[in-house]
Specification:
alpha/beta; six-stranded parallel β-sheet; 6 helices; 6 strands; about 35% helix
C-alpha cells in the first residue's frame, strides 16, 4: 500500500455542520487505518483568497458566497476537530471543487510515487465526484470509501456511488478497506 494515499476532503467545520450522520467518525476510522498501514494522509480543504479575488463572478457555486467565508481567517475553514491534521499528514488547499484545483497536489503525489487514491469527503456530488473523475483521467486508481462520504441528497449519494463512481474505480467501506490493508500487510 506504499503507493496509496488517503485523501480526506472538505472535512471543514462549516461543511461538516451541514451533513448529518457518522461520516466524520468513519473518516476518522479511515485515517486511523491509513496510519496503522503507513498510508500517507492528505487533508484537502477549500480556501479562497481574502475578498474572493480568485473567484470569477460567473462561478455559480463560489461566486455567490459571502466574501468572508472560506478564507484563511474564517473559523469555518478549520478542519473538523476529529480530523485535525497530525504530524506527518499533508494539508493541501484548493480553490475550486476538485482536490486538484489551484494547488500542487499532483506534484506532492508524484513525489511519493502515489498511484492509488482513496477518497473520503463531503459532498459526494461535489469534491468526491470531481476529484474521482479527474484522478481517473490522470491515470490514478481510485477507491471511494462509501461510508466516509456524504451528500445533502442521500439518493444522489447512492446513485453516484453505485452508478457513476463504481464504473470508474472501486467503491468500498472503511471496514472493508481496513481489512484489505491488513491482508496486504500480512502477505507482504
Amino acid at each position: 500500500m506504499s503507493r496509496t494515499a488517503l485523501l480526506l476532503m472538505d472535512f471543514q467545520q462549516a461543511i461538516v455542520a451541514r451533513v448529518p450522520g457518522t461520516v466524520v467518525s468513519r473518516a476518522a476510522d479511515a485515517r486511523a487505518a491509513a496510519r496503522e498501514a503507513g498510508v500517507p494522509v492528505f487533508h484537502i480543504g477549500l480556501q479562497l483568497r481574502p475578498g474572493h479575488v480568485d473567484v470569477h463572478p460567473r462561478n455559480k457555486l463560489f461566486g455567490s458566497l459571502p466574501a468572508d467565508v472560506y478564507t484563511p481567517d474564517d473559523p469555518g475553514t478549520a478542519f473538523a476537530a476529529e480530523l485535525t491534521p497530525a504530524d506527518g499528514d499533508t494539508v493541501v488547499h484548493k480553490n475550486r471543487v476538485s482536490a486538484f484545483a489551484g494547488n500542487d497536489l499532483r506534484q506532492l503525489l508524484a513525489a511519493r510515487d502515489i498511484t492509488r487514491l482513496v477518497l473520503a469527503g463531503i459532498a459526494t456530488s461535489g469534491i468526491v465526484l470531481s476529484t474521482a473523475l479527474q484522478a481517473v483521467d490522470l491515470d490514478y486508481a481510485v477507491t471511494v470509501l462509501s461510508d466516509a462520504c456524504a451528500d445533502a441528497d442521500p439518493a444522489l449519494h447512492t446513485t453516484l456511488l453505485d452508478s457513476v463512481l463504481a464504473r470508474r474505480g472501486e467503491v468500498t467501506t472503511v471496514d472493508a478497506w481496513r481489512a484489505a490493508l491488513a491482508r496486504t500487510a500480512h502477505t507482504g
